[in-house]
Amino acid sequence: MEEDWRRDLEHWLEPYLQKLGNKTRRRMCPAYIAGLIGPGDRKSIQPIAARADALSYDRLHHFIGAGIWDSAPLEATLWGQADELVGGDKAWLLISTEK
């Protein structure tokens, strides 16, 4: 069961990881996100690193603390996926609060 959600997460993250560029970032990102959304009550860097098999606290801390990268390619990927979900560039998304 645990491997299923991790596999799904890695599949979902795939287009975003390509935009991160750096190989280390591409490895750290899934581990960090899995630590945030996965099992475990504490979601800070130290417990996430402790729960991850091949992840050191120092590397994860550097990824979060010094994570300087261009967010524009990541945002463009997100916008593209959102467009696909609502039907493309010409589609409209209407949200009604009426009951």
Can you describe what's shown?
The protein has 99 residues and is mainly α. It has one domain. It is 66% helix and 0% strand. It has five helices and no strands. The mean pLDDT is 86.
Give a summary of the structure in a few sentences.
With 99 residues, the chain is an all-alpha fold. It has 5 helices and no strands.
Order of helices and strands: HHHHH
The tally of structural domains comes to 1
Quote the distance from N terminus to C terminus.
38 Å
The residue-averaged pLDDT reads 86
Residue share in β-strands: under 5%
Q: What's the number of helices?
A: 5
Question: Any low-confidence stretches, pLDDT <50, length ≥5?
Answer: none
Looking at the structure, what is the overall shape?
Answer: globular
Total beta-strand segments = 0
Radius of gyration: 17 Å
**Percent helix:** 55-70%
Instruction: Tell me about the largest β-sheet.
Output: none
User: What would you call the structural class?
Assistant: mainly alpha
Pfam family, one: DDE_5
Protein name: Transposase IS701-like DDE domain-containing protein
InterPro entries: IS701-like, IS701-like_DDE_dom
Domain Transposase IS701-like DDE: 16-95
